Amino acid sequence: MIIGTAGHIDHGKTSLIKRLTGRDTDRLPEEIKRGISIELGYAYVPVGGHDVLGFVDVPGHEKFIHTMLAGVTGIDFALLVVAADDGVMPQTDEHLDILMLLGIDAGAIALTKIDAVPHERIDQVQRQLTDRVQASAAQHWPVFPVSSITGAGVDALQAHLLQVAALHGARTGNGHFRMAADRSFTLPGIGTVVTGTVHAGAIRVGASVTVGPMTQGSLTARVRSIHAQDRASDAGIAGQRCALNLVGLEKSQVERGMWVQAQALSNMAERFDATVTLSTRVSKSLANSAMVHLHHGTAEAMARVAVLDATRVEPGESRLVSLKLDRPLAICCGDRFVIRDASAQRTLGGGAVLDVTPLGSPTRRGRRAPARLHLLQALRDGAPAAALRAWLDREPVPLARLASNWNLRDEEVRELIDASGAHLTAGFVLSREYWQRLRNELVSAVGVAHQREPEMPGVEQQRLRRMVAPALHADVFAAVVDELLSESLLKRRGAFLALPSHTAELGKDQRVRWERVKPLLQDRKFEPPRVRDIARETGIAEIEVRHLLKTVARVGDVMLVAQDHFFLTTAVADLADIAGSVAERHGVARAAEFRDQIGTGRKLAIQILEFFDKVGYTSRVRDDHLVRRANPWRA
Hints:
- The chain is an alpha+beta fold.
- The protein folds into five domains: 2-167, P-loop containing nucleotide triphosphate hydrolases (Rossmann fold, 3-Layer(aba) Sandwich); 178-262, Beta Barrel (Elongation Factor Tu (Ef-tu), domain 3), CATH 2.40.30; 268-374, Translation factors (Elongation Factor Tu (Ef-tu), domain 3, Beta Barrel), CATH 2.40.30; 433-498, Winged helix-like DNA-binding domain superfamily/Winged helix DNA-binding domain (Arc Repressor Mutant, subunit A), CATH 1.10.10.10; 508-627, Winged helix-like DNA-binding domain superfamily/Winged helix DNA-binding domain (Arc Repressor Mutant, subunit A, Orthogonal Bundle).
- The chain is 35% helix and 30% strand.
- The strands form nine sheets. It has a six-stranded mixed sheet, sandwiched between helices. The chain has a six-stranded antiparallel β-barrel with strand order 7-8-14-11-10-15. A six-stranded antiparallel beta barrel has the order 16-21-19-18-22-23.
- Strand 10 and strand 11 form a beta hairpin.
- Helix 7 runs antiparallel to helix 8 (384-394), helix 15 packs across helix 16 and helix 18 packs across helix 19 (602-615).
């Protein structure tokens, strides 16, 4: 278990930690000289067996709130320290607010310096504390009057901490490894060491990790050794403070605010949607488009707030918001954060991440649409499986985005998909209702197309996608089509999709024209007239003849063999037979003999053989043509 201190400057946080652990967490010369904490301090106490109690001591000065925020991220238990002589002070209030905004509900209050005040003052401050923590999780925290000078009350506090630690148990190792880096240094003969609190997952010696974000993405390093809770270990897990000896990067490349993460996790983002609660201690509402200072993990960034379900956030209210960052952060759903004003002088509120927009994704439209707000409410209020169902009711979700957003390993993703009753295909997760609805709409759209264009053999797949689901990923659409084809609910005709019962047929006016044109193609089946000649002989406009023959080609009765040169499909089959006979005698179809057999000029004979090459019946070998397969027009 990790315990983090909180409280006003000079209220005795560091002295109390020293009394509890025997270790002075002030290590910088300036801290020792001035008698105040400036940086984060760390101490550890064995609690029997292999367990270790970790302490993070934070500075109490208002100028170091950003450091305090970096220290309390990921802690399990808060120890709020209040001096009996001063009572509740500004940073007592602000630190307590921060703990509540970060969702740190477990804690205790140490009322220090009781040796310096009368009993009446102790009672007075306890009543003051009772009033302050009302209506918050801290109202259930026990208060321990203590003196770091005399040791009075320290044993009772220590016994309580050990009891809580014994009941606390280890965090689950779910998700990929994530550690918020708060310090880096170099040890002679060892190299770069990065320390932090492990937020999720587990890491073992020898594993590869990424460190970032950086200006140019992230760096990759290998874990040479691990200290977990101040002890050498083969592994580190969620809920522990770890020091990782990393090979492959220098100390200068790592700074507070970065994350050390499993390589499989890709969660860098500049935009996310969240729920935000504004502190009751602020006097003004948070306006739409306000700039704020955002603290996430040990990182800081500027962010612009877009309020989604109102025009502003009033003190004490919780609202849905979208936050646009000025630089990428490594974010997962469920992460807690705190916002302060743009000058980083006052804590405004905090919240939890609901949905993350990956880097490179287009700006989402309709973020205030009722369906989008309903989804965010479900993500806020529901269990993971229910939240996923709500998400999938709105849109298919890329599997990779689901895994990175929620920090899920492969097996955890599969379990969640199964629990939500979802359908996985082509790298996307869809609700089964959405999948079935898509199938029905697709079949229905093909039927409507047949009614509108009976002469067409079907609908081209890309056109069908634009008709039914233009925003749907092409791979998902293709998977739906493949399933419908496998079940014989659709059939494929070349580039077209059709209902099995559909037969292309000409419209009434087109049939009349075709009856005038068809005899010309029949009379000279191996050397039919070109489009312009047909137009001249029939008196039909050339453009209409061309359109008619293209339509008849879709029906399947003619084929475009050369430019503006349409042949009856039956004639193409006969020509293919002749080419095959020539090839049987010579091993290949030669243009000269083929020309003589069909009785046309050399140019047209070559064009016909080149057509056979194009459709795959033959392939060209120098000046000859090798027959590759059986006559496809006789199949």
